[in-house]
Design goal:
This protein has 2 domains: about 375 residues, Alkaline Phosphatase, subunit A (3-Layer(aba) Sandwich); about 55 residues. The strands form 5 sheets. Strands 1, 4, 5, 6, 7, 8, 11, 12 and 15 form a 9-stranded mixed sheet that branches. Helices cover about 35% and strands about 15% of the residues. Helix 2 runs parallel beside helix 3. Strand 16 and strand 17 form a beta hairpin. It is an alpha/beta fold.
Length: about 475
Amino acid sequence: MNLLDDYNAAMTRRQFFRKNGTGLGVAALSSMVGGQVLGAGGPPAGLNLPDIAPKAKRAIYISLIGAPSQMDLFDYKPALKTRFKENLKDWLASQGQRLTGMTAGQGSFPLAPTIFDFAQHGQSGAWVSNLLPWTAKMTDDLCFIKSMHTDAINHEPANQLVYTGNMNSGKASLGSWLSYGLGTMNQDLPTFVVLHASHSSPFSNVQAISSRLWGAGYLPGQNAGVALRSKGDPVLYLEDTPGLSRDLRRKMLDGLGSLNRKSYEAVGDPEIQTRMQQYEMAFRMQASVPELVDFSQEPESIYELYGEDSKVRGTFANSAMMARRLLERGTRFVQIFHRGWDQHDNLPRDLASQCKDIDQGCYGLIQDLKQRGMLDDTLVIWGGEFGRTVYCQGNLTDVNYGRDHHPRCFTMWMAGGGVKPGYTHGETDEMSYNIVKDPVHIRDLHATILHQMGLDHEKLTYKFQGLDQKLTGVEPASVVNGVLA
């Protein structure tokens, strides 16, 4: 008597309906419509997606972890220069804004105007500080949103909200939703890839991040982001074990797949299918990834476009070039994480260093996509998790200051993918503290990204724990029509 065999042979009522729903019916449907029913080339079968013409086929999200200061980069407030060191303690009390534990105990809250010079650029006349000279050259390609706001005031919940739609862990990330809803465009590469620009500035205050920000949560595991390493092999175990040929490895996977299919037929656990798909993807990536990371055919003019750093793995510029190469080969969503934007002190020194890291790389990416005819159907998103305060954290001098977290307003930009180029959406008050025109919540940003990719945030759902889970959750969210071309 084999208890395990008896257990596997036993069929509960739930397993009966699961097997009948995913067995012969799926096999018959698969034979009629092909691999898309299994999520191989399009959305899962039965997913109720609307008929929205997509403006973008793919997207890149440039994630600046730590929150760049909007009023030192884009949200120009020249009148504040005459109010240097003005104590805002009473004014802040009237705003009803909670403060972080890092500044709540300060005896005074001195106003800290930016020390950086601003100028208007392009036909759009967008204001950009002198920290971003390369970005200033392409303002007519960009759509600025100066009225972003969020619910969180600390990094971890704020990052989870901006990248998964919820401040609680365990939720599916934006990239995973796009992978789930749209499927793959290349069977040999992941649909969702994560790149870490690990070469950060030497003075940066680096925030920790985790795979929760690119995980699949309750969605099928194959929709999770695949992180490519910036040192060594981009993916571990790319090389076959010595003495193990490709043909033998193929036979091993075929045998393992046969065993897994028997287990799935007996138990009906969908994670078994996920595991099978991951094994197959790993096998195909052994051939596709070495070609992907071989930059030897990139002309010198491309390196000049992205900057000298693009020749060094792990830099932002190199990651930006890698993102373009991934999109060319059919990856649908690439997320580039660049950390170190949390300037609570020494902001003039550290922010300048951070901007130098990413400025030409961003310019090179947008121009490279344009010259290849890819920008029109590629959506690029740039931004952090919240903004920074108008008052100084700690000691304020003529040449040095720091800023605390500020969720009420911050600036992001987008490009390509059907958004308005050379346009600024939203407006803040004279203190860059409150929004006075066209507020955009993180949920609205998510709804807009999904819309541009041909998805309705209300219809893109996944049943979990008895609920129709959505990226935008249960709170109101709207597509920001004002930014759409």
